[in-house]
Amino acid sequence: MNKTSVKARLAMIQAFANFMDNGSQSATVMFYEGVQPTSPAIAADSNNALVTLVFPEPCIKETTVTYVEFHPTDTATVIKTGTATWARIFNGVGEVAADLTVGTDITLANTNLALGGTLSITSIKLRP
Fold first, then answer.
1. How far apart are CA 14 and CA 117, in angstroms?
2. DSSP 8-state symbol, 48
3. For 99-124, how does the pLDDT look when each residue is reduced to its tens digit (9 = 90+)?
4. Model pTM?
5. What is the pLDDT of residues 38-51, one digit of tens each?
6. Phi, psi (5° rounding) for residue 32?
7. 119 near 87, Cβ under 8 Å?
8. What sign results for the dihedral spanned by CA atoms 56, 76, 52, 119?
9. Residue 124: helix, strand or coil by DSSP?
10. Strand residue runs (E) in the chain
């Protein structure tokens, strides 16, 4: 489905926004080193986790006909030194919402994260 109507895209984006704010916890994004799983359905290796960032509630700042924009995350402390190669976004229930490849889907000012350093994200826009 490579060509969808504006109304269909907006409906998908609004459903995604509702999915993200579902649950009593805040949505999060975790950055990992190593090989990204081939599907969001495959569990991530927790030994490769570098840092977890928390979104405010609600996590969605804006929905438009072409993207969903998240509010900025908190600033979190890196728990392991490594090179961030991918990230996984979880909703407020802890369900996987999306996997992102660093450098393609998401850009970091510095992908080399050091133990005890900090990281935050000022802007994430997801496009269907």
1. 35
2. G
3. 999 999 888 999 999 999 999 999 88
4. 0.88
5. 999 999 999 999 99
6. -130, 155
7. no
8. positive
9. strand
10. 28-32, 49-54, 60-63, 68-70, 76-77, 82-83, 86-90, 96-101, 112-113, 118-119, 124-126
